[in-house]
Design goal:
about 300 residues, single chain
């Protein structure tokens, strides 16, 4: 006569406990592996775009890119990029022209023109993954993008006087003017003007938004650690309250960085010179050693610019 054996309750509890323990061990490791893979993808994109930065300078009398062409009228300024004429393209779209990867599937030549996806000519969405960070894939708006440019020192094309069309604040900047290309930030992950708010008060990203407290807002303009709120520049210099952008440590506490010599790595905000207020917001007093291009810790101001 055969005797059928079955698991006892104790044995089942032991098995379930072991499975639970294994899951508890493996899930964080898998999450870390996924985060690392996203970092690898983003750094690859940054490196590819960095090649375009150098190609642009080589093709334009050794001049560096502007962060974004200034607004003159509803169809100016514009540039010919990969895919056609584009109204006020950001540095990313212009870099893509040299790389050979189009930023927009349907670039528009004027502000009021609407592309096939319903986006206006000055707020189109990047469609190619090279221009997106895999850690924040929904950040597609060209204004509220994932990557920001060291515009204050490398190419601030905002106008000092709106009536003088070539009164650029700091553009064009010759590459030869930068003494330390290997230790000068060109581009990095940017969290937008939400950097001026405490982390718990930052609002989620929203495409086409202009809310200063939202992540990604005006992300294409990356402010350096030290800014002068009186005679300097920042993303929302003329707004009340003033708000500045900063790097986004979205890769396990570190931000992806493209240096001006085209090498890329990841750095913490503190390593790049940023200083946080007690509530976690980014203050105005940081260190610009890795931003000024001269190795000096100075804030960019209107009076210091040629």
């Amino acid at each position: 006569m055969r005797v059928r054996r079955s698991f006892t309750l104790v044995e089942l509890l032991v098995v379930v406990s072991i499975i639970g323990l294994l899951i508890a061990i493996l899930v964080p490791s898998l999450a870390k592996a996924r985060a690392q893979s996203r970092t690898v993808v983003c750094m690859h994109n940054v490196h590819v775009l960095g090649q375009g930065l150098g190609m642009y300078a080589s093709s334009n009398n050794d001049l560096l890119l502007p962060s974004r062409l200034p607004k003159i009228d509803e169809c100016n300024s514009y540039a010919e990029i990969n895919g056609g004429r584009k109204y006020r393209p950001t540095f990313l779209a212009v870099m893509g022209t040299s790389v050979g990867v189009p930023a927009f599937e349907d670039p528009q030549p004027c502000k009021a023109d609407i592309d096939r996806y319903g986006e206006a000519g000055d707020r189109q969405d990047y469609y190619h993954p090279t221009y997106l960070c895999s850690a924040v894939p929904s950040w597609t708006d060209e204004r509220n993008g994932a990557y920001g440019y060291n515009y204050q020192f490398l190419g601030n094309s905002r106008l000092r006087d709106s009536n003088v069309l070539d009164s650029y604040k700091n553009w064009a900047v010759p590459l030869a003017q930068i003494r330390h290309t290997a230790s000068t930030v060109a581009m990095a992950d940017c969290m937008g003007t939400a950097a001026s708010w405490a982390p718990r008060k930052r609002a989620d990203y929203e495409n086409n938004s202009r809310d200063a407290d939202r992540l990604g807002n005006e992300g294409f303009n990356l402010d350096p650690p030290r800014v002068d709120p009186t005679d300097g520049e920042m993303a929302n210099f003329d707004k009340t309250p003033q708000s500045r952008t900063a790097v986004d440590p979205r890769h396990q506490g570190r931000a992806g960085v493209l240096w001006l010599d085209a090498h890329a790595d990841t750095q913490t905000p503190e390593q790049l010179g940023y200083r946080k207020n007690p509530d976690g917001s980014f203050g105005f007093e940081g260190n610009n050693t890795f931003w000024s291009g001269t190795g000096r810790d100075v804030a960019w101001t209107l009076t210091s610019s040629p």
